[in-house]
Amino acid sequence: MMRLAWRNVWRNRRRSLINAAAMxxxxxxxxxxxxxxxxxxxxxxxxxxxxxxxxxxIQRGDVDESKFPDKFMIDPEPGARLLEKDPRVSVWxxxxxxxxxxxxxxxxxxxxxCAVEPEKERLLTDMATYIKEGxxxxxxxxxxxxxxxxxxxxxxxxxxxxxxxxxxxxxxxGAEAFRVVGLHETGSESFDGQIVWVPLKAMQEMLARPGQAxxxxxxxxxxxxxxxxxxxxxxxxxxxxxxxxxxxAIDREIISVQAFQNAILSVVLVIVFAIVALGILNTQxxxxxxxxxxxxxxxxxxxxxxxxxxxxxxxxxxxxxxxxAFGAMLGAVLIGTFGRYGLHLxxxxxxxxxxxxxxxxxxxxxxxxxxLACASLFVITLLAALPPALRAGRLKPAxxxxxx
Length: 404
Fold this sequence. Notes:
Blueprint: H1 2-9, H2 13-53, E1 56-60, H3 77-85, E2 89-103, E3 108-116, H4 118-124, E4 131-134, E5 143-147, H5 148-154, E6 161-167, E7 173-184, H6 189-194, E8 195-199, H7 200-206, E9 215-220, H8 226-237, E10 242-246, H9 247-250, H10 252-290, H11 292-300, H12 305-341, E11 343-344, H13 347-351, E12 360-361, H14 367-393, H15 397-401
Parallel strand pairs: 3-8, 5-7
Antiparallel strand pairs: 1-9, 1-10, 2-3, 2-6, 2-9, 4-7, 5-8, 6-7, 11-12
Helix pairs in contact: 1-12, 2-10, 2-12, 2-14, 10-14, 12-14
């Protein structure tokens, strides 16, 4: 039967090639879309967690906004010990994030002050790689790193001093002079125009909060373990107002973007599969009308209706195999090419206000999704061929032999 089905597929070579090409291009488009969406989501998560968020955080659970906690942990050491001994944690660091005022001789403006442990922060985030002038922070110094946009607005240059002011532990206004040691340029309005970075030790002294922090940020060896790590840390911390949360609870907007992108991809998949199904249905119906007399001959010499149905389904299956093989190879070539050289999209400009994001997407395959797309193509192919096959199985030999 399979040999006969294969011969029947290529009896009308042009029509079969057109349908196989349609299925192949459809599958390649699906694989390309799956890879593009997945790669975009992966890079978006990597940039968000690698710029400021981290994979897991320990912080107060009663803060107004998880992204920028405004309440301090009086004793962060229990959480620090848990992170230190967890083998799944690659690096972690204490932080203070607070809003304040940065003043220069010619101007003043509000800013988000991020106080970090410099040596750990180099491994925790990639902000040190964006330094264009000067150097990164020194743990024991009183340097400050800021974006070029802030420096331009304040009219300050490398080596000059600025004064930071923020609310201290007793409610008074803490103030300290810092020397500009580095200027970074990320391409993000938020990072280059609203955030400054200072050493944690100097900030603790300025706010009269020795040993305190308002978050412990951790980077894991495997981000997929974030939920499990956060749950175990939360259980180990016990009752109280200190909690462990993942990047998902902090960057909730990324989860929303992912859901939207997945919904768009699902709509595209439905449309492509519908087009493929209509093509297969049209091909098999045309083949049926052309071969009614042939089916009548087969039935008259003993072929059962079920055998005819299986023959038509086998033809569709073989046509689907050819189309899927072509589509899989084309999709793999496209993904491999753009994975090596990158796909230039204006996403950096679209997302630049929120976080540093490149305009080049390096695509990665998602074999599970691609395999699901291939399997779906086979199912669609068989389902589309089922109505013509059942119709052929109901033909009466005497009437089919009279068909012209």
